[in-house]
Amino acid sequence: MDSKRLRVGDRYLGEGEPFVDWALWLLEQGITEESVQILAVLRAPLSRWEVESWLNRVIFALELATPNPERFRYEYARELARRTVMGELSPEVGTRALWQEYVRLDYDEQLFAVAYLDDCLEQGQSVEEILEELQAFLSRRFQPAG
């Protein structure tokens, strides 16, 4: 089921095109439920209602957990941390991007633990220590505000 996870960020809320792209990706993975096929062929101008309706049908058909919009805001930061730990991003690039995400999310306290890591790296903290901090960040569960 992990290969079918709905991976979106808060930047996609209110826009339908990334969900259509996701449905196309599902088709490429061999998932051929009718709702996936219909969502994949929707074209601009997209109706938010129509996209959400078909998205909900896809989620139901694939038995996915309904996404929590409060968690969307952290998904991109988690993805940056994961890619840095896996070596897909250099520690310099990954930690700088995490700082930028912290600023974009209006200095959200749940990202504070990793927001300063680019400064630590510049001040000589070892890459191994930075990667350990990122790994700890990835193991945290985010609590929706409210």
Features:
2 domains; 8 helices; 146 residues; disordered N terminus
Number of helices: 8
Quickly give the structural class: mainly alpha
Order of helices and strands: HHHHHHHH
Instruction: Estimate the helix proportion, in percent.
Output: 55-70%
The overall pLDDT, averaged over residues, is 80
Number of domains: 2
Write up what this structure looks like.
This protein has 146 residues and is mainly α. It folds into two domains: 2-61, no CATH class; 69-139, no CATH class. The protein contains eight helices and no strands. It has helices at 17-28, 34-41, 48-61, 69-85, 91-104, 112-115, 117-122, 127-139. Helix 1 crosses helix 2 (34-41) and helix 4 packs antiparallel against helix 8 (127-139).
Write the layout of secondary structure elements.
Layout: H1 17-28, H2 34-41, H3 48-61, H4 69-85, H5 91-104, H6 112-115, H7 117-122, H8 127-139
Helix pairs in contact: 1-2, 2-3, 4-5, 4-8
In a few lines, what is going on in this structure?
The protein has 146 residues and is mainly α.
